[in-house]
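Example record

Each entry pairs one chain with its bound ligand, iron/sulfur cluster.
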Amino acid sequence: MQKRSFGSNGAKITPISFGAMRIPHQADKATPIIRRAIDMGINYIDTAPFYCDSKSEDLVGEALQDGYREKVYISTKCPVGTKDEYDLDEFLHQSLKRLKTDYIDFYHLWSLNGENYREKVLAPGGFLEKAVKAQEKGFIKNISFSFHGEVEDLIEIIQDGHFTTMLVQYNILNRENEEAIALAREKGLGVAIMGPVAGGRLARPSKVIEKMLPKGVSTSAELALRFVLANSDVSTAVSGMENIEMVEENIATASRPEPLSKEEHEKIKSTTEELKALAELYCTSCGYCMPCPHDVNIPANFQLMNYYRVYDLKDYAREVYQKMEAGEKFVPQGKTAQHCIECGECMDKCPQNIDIIKQLQEVKEALKK
Ligand code: SF4
Ligand code: SF4
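Structure tokens for the complex follow.
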């Protein structure tokens, strides 16, 4: 794999990185997977205190014994939150202990948005000040951030110039951050991408996505990865790897000198633009219809319907709908279409003039068991 530059500090990184959020929870199973990835050249391992039921850092620390630590950059994170109070020094100390190391190469302020960046990161005595102190003591080599928020706020953070690298979302289905990624590169930040296969969505069967596959690309997951890597502003795609087969497949894809030709890349971009426009004809997720007094998450239900109807991701849409219904974590919060009692409160608020009650009925028919 040809390495790419990762930030202005001169680090070189493999185009695919090991995401340790889906590894088996037992060291005897996780260690061979992580070591196989490193033996095949991967040099960046991304973990976090809460991954794998809070076992990920311990498992990574165990796998990096016997001389493996020196072969990789370690990335881990400190939650910043909005309401909760987290202490960076405490989190850092625990991470160092679990990872069995004296320093973290890329320490992320985790899940920033405009609000917590301004109120908690930049505040006197806040996360940035503490991270800089830890860096001066040698516990952190580089200060990084991950981001889940509005693109304007991401651009502001990049412009402020406090960080060496960033970890953001970008994939075929969500190219919102593309401009910010280009800016980051221009400003000398390393760019790591989370969710290159759109949280697993692009690994699901879809006739619409399959039609986009250029010659020589066999699966939509491979296409998704190649699409991200074809963007030269991206330093690395962090892929959650569960087994050795996945490690080998990912490395084979990332080892290609040209992930996609310029024409293939442009064609995929224009097809996804068309699909997005089609989806937005239905619902733009603007949220003007919210809140629903009965807690129905109207835009989330319609977004699932878009995955079902426009992108042909039927299995995925049904699965997330069931999880929303069960109130599970890591899916949109709020109620499914089943809970609309047709009170009519939302009906005149939609700028798209969507007949929300009728459309929710259709969502229910299509996505319930
Ligand atoms: S009509 Fe349904 S979705 Fe709209 S506000 Fe009433 S319960 Fe909520
Ligand atoms: S107001 Fe209309 S377009 Fe906006 S989220 Fe609600 S249903 Fe979608």
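The mean pLDDT is 93.
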